[in-house]
UniProtKB/TrEMBL annotation:
Signal among keywords: yes
Name the record gives this protein: Polysaccharide deacetylase
GO term, biological process aspect, one: carbohydrate metabolic process
Classification via InterPro entries: Glyco_hydro/deAcase_b/a-brl, NODB_dom, Polysacch_Deacetylase
Length: 292
C-alpha cells in the first residue's frame, strides 16, 4: 500500500515537470555567483492598501492597456533528451540572463499583483514600462538561477506553486523546498497558487475544489504567513463556471495564458505569454510589444 502510494506520487511528479509538456528536466546544478545587487528599480511606489480598492466594472478593466506578463517554467540548459515541444518551456541559463538584461536595458520595471490590481481597478499609476514576471511549477532552478538573476536588477516576481511538488526530488527535476518558498516570499516576491497537482481546472468536480484549491491555499499560507490572492490555471485552461469558486475562496486575480479575456471577469482571465526557450532577447522584446 505504502509502496503503491509512493509510486503514484513519483509518477505524478515526472508528469508535472512543466505546464504543458512532459519535457524532462534535471536540475542543472548551477553555480551562479551571487551577483552584486544593483538596484535599478529606483521607483519604489508607496504601499497600496488593496483592501480599500473597489473592483471596477469589466468594461473599464478591459479598456485599460494590458501590462505585459511573462510566464516561465524551467530555466536550465537543454539536454539531448529534451523534446522539441519541451524546449518551449525550458529557457537556457545564459539566454534567461540575456533576456533579463534586455528588459533592464530597455527600461522595464517589474510590478507585482497589488500594483496590477490597483491599476486595473482604479487606474493607479504604474512605473514606466511595467512588466510582470511569473514562474510556474515550483522548479528548483527558479530559486538557484532565477532569483540571483532578478536580484541583480532589483526585479521581483510571482511564483506559482503546485503544492504536491514542494520539497520533492523527481527523477528529472527537483523542486523548491518550503524554506526556499518562504525566503522568496520574505524577500518581497509574491507566492501564488497553482493547485495541488496540476489537474485541469475545467474538469473540477466534487472534492477537487477542496483538493486543488482549499488545501493548497492553506499550505501556502502556512508557509508564507501571507494570504493567497493569486491563482494560475494549470495549462492556462479555464472556464467561466469555475470563476465563482475562485472568488468565493478569496482569490483576487487569476492568470491564464494568451487566449482572449472573459468579457465579464477580466480579473480572473489575465493574459500571460510563455517566454519560449527558442526566443532570443530580441524576439522576446518584439513579442512583448505585439502580444499586449
Ligand atoms: Zn504549470
Amino acid at each position: 500500500m505504502k509502496y503503491k502510494f509512493l509510486s503514484i506520487i513519483s509518477a505524478g511528479i515526472i508528469l508535472f515537470t512543466s505546464c504543458q509538456s512532459k519535457s524532462q528536466a534535471e536540475n542543472a546544478s548551477v553555480q551562479d555567483s551571487t551577483s552584486q545587487t544593483t538596484k535599478n528599480q529606483a521607483e519604489t511606489e508607496p504601499a497600496i492598501d488593496v483592501s480599500k480598492i473597489k473592483v471596477a466594472d469589466a468594461k473599464t478593466i478591459l479598456a485599460r492597456k494590458q501590462v505585459p506578463i511573462l510566464c516561465y517554467h524551467q530555466v536550465r540548459n537543454w539536454k539531448p533528451t529534451d523534446g522539441k515541444v519541451g524546449k518551449d518551456y525550458i529557457v537556457e541559463i545564459q539566454n534567461f540572463k540575456d533576456q533579463m538584461k534586455m528588459l533592464a536595458d530597455s527600461g522595464y520595471h517589474t510590478i507585482l499583483p497589488d500594483q496590477l490590481y490597483a491599476y486595473l481597478n482604479t487606474g493607479a499609476k504604474l512605473p514606466s514600462k511595467p512588466i510582470m514576471l511569473t514562474f510556474d511549477d515550483t522548479d528548483m532552478d527558479q530559486f538557484t538561477v532565477v532569483r540571483p538573476t532578478l536580484d541583480k536588477y532589483g526585479y521581483k516576481a510571482v511564483y506559482f506553486i503546485m503544492t504536491v511538488s514542494i520539497g520533492r526530488k523527481g527523477k528529472f527535476v527537483d523542486y523548491m523546498t518550503k524554506e526556499q518558498i518562504k525566503q522568496l516570499s520574505d524577500e518581497g516576491n509574491v507566492i501564488g497558487s497553482h493547485t495541488y497537482d496540476h489537474k485541469n481546472f475545467k474538469k473540477y468536480a466534487g472534492k477537487d475544489w477542496e483538493e486543488q484549491l482549499d488545501k493548497p491555499t492553506k499550505k501556502l499560507e502556512e508557509i508564507t504567513g501571507k494570504k493567497m490572492t493569486e491563482f494560475a490555471y494549470p495549462f492556462g485552461l479555464w472556464n467561466a463556471e469555475g470563476i465563482p469558486e475562485l472568488k468565493k475562496r478569496g482569490f483576487r486575480m487569476a492568470y491564464q495564458l494568451s487566449t482572449k479575456r472573459d468579457e465579464k471577469d477580466p480579473l480572473f482571465t489575465i493574459r500571460r505569454i510563455i517566454a519560449s526557450g527558442y526566443w532570443s532577447p530580441k524576439t522576446l522584446s518584439n513579442s512583448i510589444k505585439n502580444s499586449f
